[in-house]
Every structure is written in structure tokens, then in C-alpha cells.
Amino acid sequence: MDKKKKHAEEMKVHRTKWTDEQKNKNREQSKIRMQKYRERKKKETQILEQNQNQDCNNNLKSIETRLHQKKKEDRLKKQRIYKQEWRRNLTAQKKRRIREKDAAIKRAIRSKKDQRGTKIAMNFTVQKTETVYQKEALRKAIYRSRKNMPVSPAKYAKVVGGLIKNTTPRRKKALENEGIGSPSAKRNLKELFQSVREAHLDLLKGKTDLQKKRRKEFLSHFSTSLSQKPEFKKIFCMATGIRRKYLSEDYVKPKPKKRRKDATSKQTTDAVKLFFKSEIHSATISDKKSVKKDLQEKHVLMMSQKSLWNKWNIENQTQLSFSKFCELRPKNVLTQGHRKLYQCLCEYCENVKLKLIAINRFLAHDHPELKFTDEFDAVNKTLCPKLEAERFHKRDCIDRKCAECGTSKLRNMFDGVMENEENQPDVKWKRWDIVKTLNHKTKKEITKRQEIEKTGPPTDLLEELLDELVFLSPHLFEARWQQEQFAELNKNFPENSIVLTIDFAENFSCFSQHEIQGAHWAKDSVTIHPCIALYRCPKDGHIVDECIDIVSNDLLHDNHAVHTFLLEVVNTT
Question: Region (Disordered): which ranges (predicted)?
Fold first, then answer.
């Protein structure tokens, strides 16, 4: 049974039990209710007539009682509190999704408004009053016309030109709409606006940083030229649907990226770049072909990036990860693999490096933790640890006068690892040494330095290495000390002083442009002695860098030649 019917039956039974007093009271209340109901209906009728007179199609809202209004306010308040709590508990990802959705809805509404504005503002549409050819009918019409046209290109052009020239104004307009003859500037402008609009709508779809950057680059092409033509800018924006603020310089110009709080400071970045370019860590490539448009000279690292990174962390308070350290390497500083030829190397350092390669190969399988990084690492393992805030080891340790350190530390480290055993294979290593050989031309025995391969037990290799490390410790210290002093001298240049960098270059061979075959084996040589002079200018105090090349027929590279050349250089500078 329906609830309303059930309720009516119950009230009917209930009313039979009422007293006369209750019945009179109910009648009075019914009169009041009906009076209010008639007043409310009268008001609704008046409002409806008013809205009809004003052509208003809004839905008529019923007049609410105070109780109903209070309930509605309570419900809205409850909803508002619930919404505030819901927004407070939203995650960052959910908030971003909601913002993206709202932006997409607003963009769609804006696009519709712009389209309506464009249709009103740029009335470029051509009213078609005639029927247009279907595809098949157009093909047949073109075929019939072409059949009657002359075959000769010159005659064909004359006939077509005459047809266009003698056509009626309406046909001329139709030809212009098809882009034939002389298309109007208005049609060209419409096509341009349409292509710009389509391209911009495609770029609007992208949400990534790269796609947003491309959109700004696209708009920057119009921003500069339209800034000088405000009237045309208004037409352009209405026709393409691009808002004016997107063509402003503030929007188009690239904004600097926000720096992270934990980002590496500029001071540290500059310090790392100078660290890479230091003469101690990298050598300058003396080849003008290596210099590019930026006019920066190329450098090649003299040690591995891992060794440099360890050295940086020891010498500096700012600790960097290895990946970040490698990332900060300047582009004009190349790794060791980019060096074509390794020539004029130190014999002592090279022999130690060759032995370390052999030892690392021997230790790779069973004892990888004992491997050496480079010759500096091998020397450091034979010395006492550095003191805090000290750049070098103690001088007694370097000169092998310390009783607590020495090559014995390295021997103890390899105790039990490189012992002679019956089943242990021999080790191969290389070294540079003086070799006696026969000159095939003169048939005389001569001596020269050559890389040879040696084979023996691991203990022999270790003993050779330990003997060479005794001398290598002061040798590396002196080389590094001299490099640092020279670099410091170039930075803080003393008054009334000249710093010279001199060396003998390879002798230059002289030959004629037109020479006979026999002269090929009897060329004259010339000594070339380059010199780089650094001194402080007496006028402005800046450091002047001059290159002086001395050319001489004296082929003896001795101390007398150097003394004569230096006198000439000093007198010149």
C-alpha cells in the first residue's frame, strides 16, 4: 500500500476520535493555512507575470519558509565544513590534477568565446550562391577543357591568359577565391591567420616544460613585430585566438630557472672549473685547430677524473659526489682518452705506471681492494698520513728520513699476497730501458731507449716497484711544488720582474719548392727556440704575454746557445 494512502486511512480513523474542541481548533488552523497558501500562490502568479513581461526564461523558485531556509543554511554550512576538511586532506598530486582539469575547462570556454569573436570580427567567409562541382564531375570537366586546349606551352599560356584577362568581374572574384590570377591580400591574410591559429592550438596541447618552451619560442616570433603595431595586434589576437598577454615581453622572454636550496653554489662551481684547468691537473693542447669559435684553448687531463675527485675532496671543505664533480668539468677540458700522443713523458713516472698496471692485473681476481689508482696513490701508501689543513706530507717522510714510514709499509701490505709459490704463474710487465741494437746502415752497435717486456715472479716485480718508489716520492713533490709556485707567480706577479718559459722545439727542415730527387736526403735544419715572456706593463700595470721565437743555424742545443738566446730575449722585452 502506498504511504500516502496508508497515512490518509490512519488520519481518517484518528479524526473520528476527535472531540468538538479539537475539531474547531483544526478548522481554525486549516483556515490560516489556506489563507497563507492563497497569498503564496498569488505572489507566485505576480512574479510569473513579471518574468513573462521581461522575456525571462528562468525557472521560478518557490518561496521558502523560515524553517526551510534555516534547514537549507544548516545544510550548506555542513557541506562547507565538509568541503574545507576534504580540501585540507588533499595530496599534492590530487591538487595538481584538479588545477589541470579546471584550467582545461577554462581554456575550452575561452577558446569558444574567441571563436565566436573571430567569426564576428574577421568576416572573411565568401558566400556561395552557386553549386560546386562534385569530384568526378570536376575531373570530367577538366578533361574536356584540356582536350580542346592547344598542346604548345606558349599557345596554352596565351589562351589561359586571354581567358583570365577577358573574364567578367564575378568570375574574377571566383578566381581570386581559388587563388588564381591575383589573389586578394585579404584572402592571404585569412589563410595566414588560420595557419597560425592551427599551429598555436597544437602547441597548447603540450603540458611538459619542453612543450611550453616551444610555445613561447613560437609566440616570440610575433611579439617583437606586433609590439610596434598595436592596432594590427588587436586584429591578430582576435583572428588567431591568442590572448594579448601571451604576446607580451614578460611572458615570452625566458625566465630564469628556480634554484634548488641544496644546489651547488656558484663559488664552488667556479672553483671546480679552475681546479680542472689548473696547470697541475691538465695540459694545454698546442694545436690551433683545437680552438673553436669561442676562442678557448683546449686542455687534456693529466690524471683520471677519479684521482682528481679524491684530490678535490682532500684539499677542499666542500665535498662533492663523483657524478657532480664530473658534470662540472668544463667543455674545453678533455679526458685522458682524447690525447692523441703521449710524448716527452717522465721516464721514472712512466716506469712506475707500467709496473702498477701489471700489479693491478695480478690483484684483480683475488685482492681487488689492494689495487692502485695511480703513481700518487702508490707513493701516498708509503708515507705517513697528512696533518689536518696541510697540503703536503712531512718533508722527512718525503725525503725518506722518517723511521715510521717508507716502502716497508707497502711490503707489509703485500705480505702473503705476492709470495713465491710453486704453482704461481710468472708475471709480465713493461719498462723503458737502454737497449743495445745494430744500426743496419753503418753496421755499428748503438744504444737507445726502448720499451721492453720482462717476465718473472711477482716478488721481483714488487721489489722493482719498491726501489723506484724510494726516488719517486721527492720527485713527485718537486714537480708539483714547482708547478704550484709557477702558477702562483703568474697570478701574483712581482714588480720589475720577467717570467720566461723556454724550451727547444723540434728542428725545422728547410727545402725548396722545386727540388731534385737527390736533395730529399740532404736537407738543411734550423734550430727553433720558442720563448713565452710574462711581465707587468709599466703604463697600466696589466700582465703582458709575449711570444718570441728564435731561429738559428746553430744546431748544438747546449747551455751556450741558451745563454745567447736569453740575452736576446731580455734585451727585446
Answer: 1-32
